[in-house]
Amino acid sequence: MAMVVLLYNRVSTTDSASELDVLRQCSAVESALLQLGHHVQRLDCTLDLQSVRNRLRQLQPDVVFNLVEALGGTDQLMGLATLLLESLGIPFTGASSLTMQLTTRKPLAKQRLADLRLPTPAWLLPGDQHWRGRTSAAHSPLQALVKAASEHASLGLSDDSVIDCQQLRSHERLQHAMHTAAMHYATPFFAEEYIHGREFNLSLLADHSEPQVLLPAEMLFVGYAEERPRILGAAAKWDELSSDYHQTTRSFHYPATDQPLLDELAALARNCWNAFDLAGYARVDFRVDADGQPWILEVNANPCLSPDAGFAAALEHSGISWEQAVARILNDARPSLETPRTTTG
């Protein structure tokens, strides 16, 4: 068995629910590691990387289970943790620094998808005169979603984030909305073509040479009016007292007629794994338009590992135990630690 350091970003009691969630992930992963027989040491990470470096040298772990989601209050710096681990030559779970930097910068990730001819909605950056991607300047999207360029947890996302692009001066309105959001949240925002349709999340788990695509989850927007945007805003994800929180649910049940679509989504998810050199575990988010065309929204190299999050739900519905998944993530970082595989369900 191995000495495993559980590395996570330091939080305080005054942080938001989305920030404090990393502690729930730590507890869940730690429990699995202990059941697998490993020795576990928690280590919180801050921008004082020299202190973290010194502590890692003292502990001399066989492998680090990386749960760092942000540093200095922003996702944009999370890659500093993996850079530190790479500089020390310590094996760690999940994606490399290069992959982490690319996937957390959503416009860069979308450009990568477009370059590889993988379907992603058109996008607009602050200062752009024309849309990038599949939509030409002469045919702008019907609606656009203004979203954070590098932050997770649906920061600043609500129904008001969807803007009608068919009205007069819509370009100026979009630019103003991006600027206003960036000033308010102190982080860059951009605009993405809004696809009004079905939403799917596909989780992937390392499985030796090829990733295993878990059973897709479809997000259902129960009781939403037809014209209301289907978006998982901040309230739907974190505010347990809001109606949005209770009206957005996951479903893993599909009619047989959906199988061709599910197969296409799985193939696209595997393409993303290879395109971004993902490792350990990941999630790819999709929208499917009225014509049945899938569109890749985001590639998440470090999806949430909380017991009630989407990745854990996908494991359960795919017949994979939590301990089994943690063992496979760990083995992908350090193959010599491979544990005999078992499944449940």
What does this entry look like structurally?
Helices cover 35% and strands 20% of the residues. The protein is built from 11 helices and 13 strands. The chain folds into 3 domains: 90 residues, Rossmann fold (3-Layer(aba) Sandwich); 73 residues; 140 residues, D-amino Acid Aminotransferase, Chain A, domain 1, CATH 3.30.470.20. Strands 8, 9, 10, 11, 12 and 13 form a 6-stranded antiparallel sheet that branches. Strands 4-7-5-6 form a 4-stranded antiparallel sheet, with helices on both faces. The chain has a 3-stranded parallel sheet with strand order 2-1-3, sandwiched between helices. The relative contact order is 0.15. The chain is globular. Helix 3 runs antiparallel to helix 4. The chain has 345 residues and is an alpha+beta fold. The C terminus is likely disordered. A hairpin with a 6-residue loop joins strand 8 and strand 9.
Can you summarize this structure?
With 345 residues, the protein is an alpha+beta fold. It has eleven helices and 13 strands.
Which class do the helix and strand fractions yield? alpha+beta
Share in β-strands:
15-25%
- Major sheet details: 6 strands, antiparallel
CATH arch. level architecture of the largest domain: 2-Layer Sandwich
Figure out the total of helices. 11
Gyration radius, rounded: 20 Å
- Poorly predicted ranges (pLDDT <50, ≥5 residues)? 340-345
Counting DSSP E segments of at least 2 residues, the number of strands comes to 13
Which fold does the CATH topology of the largest domain refer to? D-amino Acid Aminotransferase, Chain A, domain 1
Domain unit count:
3
Distance between the termini: 27 Å
